Each structure stands twice: as C-alpha cells, then as structure tokens.
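User: Sequence in, structure out. Go.
Assistant: Echoing your sequence, followed by the structure tokens.
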Amino acid sequence: MTDSRCFHPVFCTIVPPHLLDKLARAENPAVAGPARRTLVADAAQRTRRRLTTVVGAPAAALPTEAAAGRPQRSIHDAGHGRDLPGRKVRGEGDAPGRDATVNRAYNGLGATFDLFLKAYARDSIDGNGLPLVATVHYDENYGNAFWDGEQMVFGDGDGEIFLDFTLPVDVIGHELAHGVTQYTANLTYFGQPGALNESVSDVFGSLIKQYTLDQTAAEADWLIGAGLLAESVSGVALRSMKAPGTAYDDDVLGKDPQPATMDEYVRTGRDNGGVHINSGIPNHAFYLLATELGGRAWERAGQIWYDVLTGGELPVDATFAEFARLTLAAAHTRYGEGAEQEALRKAWSQVGVPLAVEG
C-alpha cells in the first residue's frame, strides 16, 4: 500500500558534497579535476530536480498486471554523457552481457526489489510495481551515484579515489531506498529529518547487502560503500554504522566526520545541515538494536524501521527523538512488550537520543 501524502522528490547522492569539496582542493589534478566536474554535474542535477518539482515530473511507466510482484528493470548507458536515461542496454529478463557494470546494476536493482517484496511485502519502491530504471557510465570520471526522484544513476569513479559505483550493492540499495522514503514518509532533506532520510537509506542499503549475502547481524560488516574506495585510500568505506567516524582517515579524503552519539552532533549549514554527517547517530542506534536482537537484521530490527517509515505517523520534519519514540510504538504494535522494546530503549539511550517527551 502506498502513502497518500503528496511527495516531493529530492536529489540524493551517496557521496556528500562536503567530501567532494575536500577532493576538489587536492593538489593532484587527477583527483581535483574529477571532483570539480562531479560537483558541477551534481549542481546541475539539483537545479533540474527543483525545476521538476515546480513543473511536475513526467509520468512513470505503469506496471502491467502480469508483472505484479516481479521487478521491471531497465539499464541504460549514458556513454559518459549526462543525458538521461541514455541508451537502453538491458531489459527485464535479458541475459547478462559483457559489461560487468550493467550486470551489477541489474542485479543490485533485483536484490533491492527482492528484499522489499519478500521481507516487507512491498512491490517495488512505490509499493505498486514501479519500474526500476538505472543509468550507468554517467559523465566522465563521475565520482558519485544518485537517485534523482525518478531513477538511479551511477558513475564510473575517477580510479584515484573512487572505483565503479555499482561495485557495492549497498550503494545501489541506499539510493533506491531514497525512493521508498520519497513515496512514504517523504522526510524533508535538511537537518535532522534529512539525516534520518540518509540514515534510513544506509539502514536498508546495509540490509540489502546482508540479505544478498545471507548474513546475520553479527556476521555483517555494517559498512556503507565497502569496496568503493581505491586501494591508495586509507579507509574501508564511506561510512560505518558499527563505528561512525572510523570509515576513512586519509591525507586526501580527510577524516570521517560522522558522530556516533548526540554529544558529538555536528551543527553546520553545509550538506543540507549535515544530513550525511549526523546520520551516523540513528545509524549507530540501528546497529546497536540489530546486534542486540541478533539473527537476521532485516527481520525484527528492519521491520520496525519499515513500519515507522510506512506507518503514516512520521512527520516530514521529524527529529531523531520523534523517530525514536515511533520505533517504540511500532515495536509495541507488532511485538508487544518484550526484547524489542528493551533493545530499542537501550540503543537510543546509548546514542543519547531521548525517548521521554521533554517539557
């Protein structure tokens, strides 16, 4: 079932602008040049998204009755240009081709579709069989991946800092999860609600990877974008849900700025009020919940997050505290008083998010 509220698509990238700003100032032109080009391309897409919000997006293709409950994927090749969606190179049911990037995008869309359908009975990201469209080989040395409100787009990376953005399946899942948020809670992309928007995508991106690998919460690495950074970079991923602030510490890339608790909450006007930075706090709360409950994280822990996202009670401008209180309510509705409630209270307490209503 889809949410009836009016939604406003936003342009969401996996690599935050503050990180690209850092790279754009690098002494090495092989790093700075692609970062600057990526920033220009991202700025153009943000402008396009704002205009689309004003004039209206083109109608999406409707699913056929025969395809209900099955993915409808189409992968396109931008040929290192910026025109979207580009030339179609693989459709639903087509055999794999020679382009590994195309095949990874196709499989990642399928993995995301499978998790939402099988774990949460959600038919595609809108709940109504929305076709999944992705474009690969976007622009030249493009160092990002994004959801533009209508489709997924992947860059090939610069080879110096970032590799192919289809390599980590959680990056694919992260961006498509922005679409799920768009069609449900529609969280405002600024400040705490924006950080929740990013965190929800990290949560489901990680769950998609765990689901694909059939991992328990204890077996998972809880990294977002592992395998994306080039070998020369001192780091393991873009973000760590297990230990926010430790994903990278590199002379060129800088140090991971994510806080794990409210004591280190970052107040900034950059990155839409720190949406990619402060998302570390709810990310860590989810990690603590999932590992406390044990087993497969997409089951109980993921179900609670999904219930909050789709329950219709989450305000578009929700704070961390409002989200936390709704997780308790959702867990009580589904599981009653028990281990889930205790684990939630413990997790939110450890990251410093209050559950009691402050007077």
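User: And one key feature?
Assistant: Strands lie at 12-13, 73-77, 87-91, 132-136, 145-147, 152-154, 223-224, 239-240, 249-250, 254-255.
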